[in-house]
Amino acid sequence: MSSKPTGLNFGLQNLLDEGFEVEVRQQHLLVHSVPYVTSDRELRRGTLVCTFIESAGTLLPPDNHQVWWTGQYPCFASGARIAHIENENNRQELFRGCTIQHRFSNKPEGFSNFSDHYSKMVHYITILQDQAKAIDPNADARTGRVIEPVEGTSVFRYADTASARAEIMMTSSRLGIGRVAIIGLGGTGSYVLDQVAKTPVSEIHLFDGDKFLQHNAFRSPGAAKLEDLAKLIPKSDYFQRIYDAMHRGIVSHPYYLTELNLGELTGFDFIFVCVDNGGTRSMLSQHIQSLSVPFVDVGMNIQLVPDSRKLIGTCRTTLNTPTQKDHFAQYVPMDEVEQDVLYRQNIQVADMNALNAQLAVMKWKQLFGFYADDFNPHNMTFSVNSMSLTRDVLVSPPEP
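Structure (tokenized):
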């Protein structure tokens, strides 16, 4: 960690000024080389770790009074465990390059929480270091070593503090695959982008030849500005500009995919197909299947009941993988059928579009190990009038 001041740092600069071996990485604060005593009464050094969350460039005070520990369980100078700090003993990789062994929970009597990271880390350092000093008076965590920061290559323009706060950084990292394509940025495709842009995917490619019009604003995430609607911006350009504020590597392709340019789908790791035309869907699915790339296809069928003037209908999510694709034609309309005619008549509602997108994104996240998948369905259909979700095509054994 650089020794330069960090502004409103909630104790970080104090740690640096006193010579502690400090590093900030992946929204966590690490204090290295903390001396402690093992159960064999040997002196070792370990690292204390705690969350270090920022918001819009401002560091926040500690969100709890707990810390993680990378070494063996620390003991008194006698070799007995320091039991009053014990909370959890579970070896795990907290984030890439940081494996912890234990979690401690302790605070001075009368404290509700620590006001800054300095007081928090020094509290635990003192507990461990005092026992080490009883064996070697020269044992000290203040090594004076400065760790230079490693420039990150994150796809995010600001840190994913949500995953850090929830302690799921390793789980989230499973979604850090190479390239994802979203074909169609209508009501459903735009909500797919909204979710995928919040994951560590390296590149997100947007394919759509339509303009972003006023009716699109009412079934897309966010709130479009009137002046933007007047510009008739291509959908892919509009959404690329919006989500580039959060996620690097979003690429706009402001045109339709046809037989002439299907080669542009080569090299993707996953594809979302969000089109409303059976013929186009058939062309795309056959080509993607030939590439042996997993993809999700989505579709909606919303109808107006004349007598009641109420809407009924369904949204469908179908997963196709290189090892499970025989079911696809059974569930996915490939021709110019009535369902697609209704879809193109704009009988859509933002909540159904959003739900269709969420189901597709959750299925993608299951495939790559973010969510558990007990039944491994490859087709799901939600009916709004019965408020029911059905799953089909159970695969055994589950795909890796």
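Residues 117-135 form the longest helix (19 residues). The chain has two domains: 12-154, 174-394.
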